[in-house]
C-alpha cells in the first residue's frame, strides 16, 4: 500500500511541503529545490512566511490550490499531528512524513491518525531517496540490499 502512495507522489507535478523554513540551509528548503529541478511545482507551507525561495508561501493547508493533492511534511514530529488535522479538512489526498538525517516528522501518533482518518501516508523513507539523484538513490539501493526495505520496494528506480 505504501508503494502505491509513493508511486502517486512520484507521478505528481504539484506538491506542497509543510515545513519549508525561512532558513535556506534547512532540509525542507533543500527538498524544495530538488523537486523544482525535477520540474515539480512546489507549494511551500509555513505560517510565518509570505514567500520562500521566491515562491508564494501558504500559511495553512486549506489555502493551497485545488490541484495540490500531495503534501510532504518536513517539520519536527511534534507539529505533524496538527498539520494532519488541517489535511483532514482540505483537498490533500496523501501525505509523506519525512525521514531524513534528523528525527523526521513521523511519529506513532501521526501514523495512527492517518490510519484512523484514512489518509494514505508514507513514512520511514526520506523522499530524496525517490525524488533525488546520486547519493540519495545509492542510499535507497543500500537499504534495499541490506534488507532494510520491505520486499514490495525492491524495484529498480530509474
Q: Could you characterize what this model shows?
A:
It contains six helices and seven strands. α4 links the parallel β6 and β7. The chain starts with a helix and ends in a 13-residue tail after the last helix. It is globular. α3 runs parallel beside α4. The chain has a single domain, classed as 3-Layer(aba) Sandwich (Rossmann fold). It has a five-stranded parallel beta sheet, sandwiched between helices. A two-stranded antiparallel ribbon has the order 3-4. The C terminus is likely disordered. Helices cover 36% and strands 16% of the residues. By secondary structure, it is α/β, with parallel strands linked by helices. The longest helix has 12 residues.
Describe the structure concisely.
This protein is α/β, with parallel strands linked by helices and 158 residues long. Helices cover 36% and strands 16% of the residues.
Classify the oligomer.
Answer: single chain
CATH class wording: Alpha Beta
CATH architecture: 3-Layer(aba) Sandwich
Name of the CATH superfamily: NAD(P)-binding Rossmann-like Domain
Structural class: alpha/beta
Shape: globular
Q: Figure out the total of helices.
A: 6
Distance between the termini: 21 Å
The helix content is: 25-40%
Q: How many strand segments?
A: 7
Radius of gyration: 15 Å
- Following the backbone from N to C, one meets helices and strands in this order, namely HEHEEEEHEHEHH
Biggest sheet strand line-up? 2-1-5-6-7
Provide mean pLDDT, rounded: 82
- Looking at the structure, the CATH topology is Rossmann fold
Summary keywords:
about 160 residues, alpha/beta, Rossmann fold, five-stranded parallel β-sheet, two-stranded antiparallel ribbon, 6 helices, 7 strands, about 15% strand, globular, disordered C terminus
Amino acid at each position: 500500500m505504501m508503494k502505491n502512495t509513493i508511486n502517486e507522489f512520484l507521478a505528481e507535478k504539484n506538491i506542497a511541503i509543510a515545513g519549508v523554513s525561512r532558513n535556506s540551509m534547512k532540509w525542507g528548503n533543500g527538498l524544495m529545490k530538488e523537486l523544482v529541478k525535477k520540474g515539480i511545482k512546489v507549494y511551500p507551507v509555513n505560517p510565518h512566511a509570505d514567500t520562500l525561495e521566491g515562491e508564494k508561501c501558504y500559511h495553512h493547508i486549506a489555502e493551497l490550490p485545488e490541484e495540490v493533492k500531495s503534501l510532504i511534511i518536513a517539520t519536527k514530529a511534534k507539529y505533524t499531528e496538527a498539520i494532519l488535522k488541517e489535511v483532514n479538512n482540505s483537498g490533500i489526498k496523501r501525505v509523506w512524513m519525512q525521514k531524513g538525517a534528523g528525527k523526521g516528522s513521523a511519529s506513532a501518533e501521526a501514523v495512527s491518525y492517518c490510519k484512523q482518518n484514512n489518509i494514505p501516508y508514507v513514512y520511514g523513507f526520506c523522499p530524496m531517496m525517490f525524488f533525488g539523484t546520486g547519493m540519495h538513490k545509492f542510499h535507497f539501493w543500500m537499504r534495499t540490499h541490506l534488507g532494510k526495505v520491505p520486499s514490495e520496494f525492491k524495484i529498480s528506480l530509474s
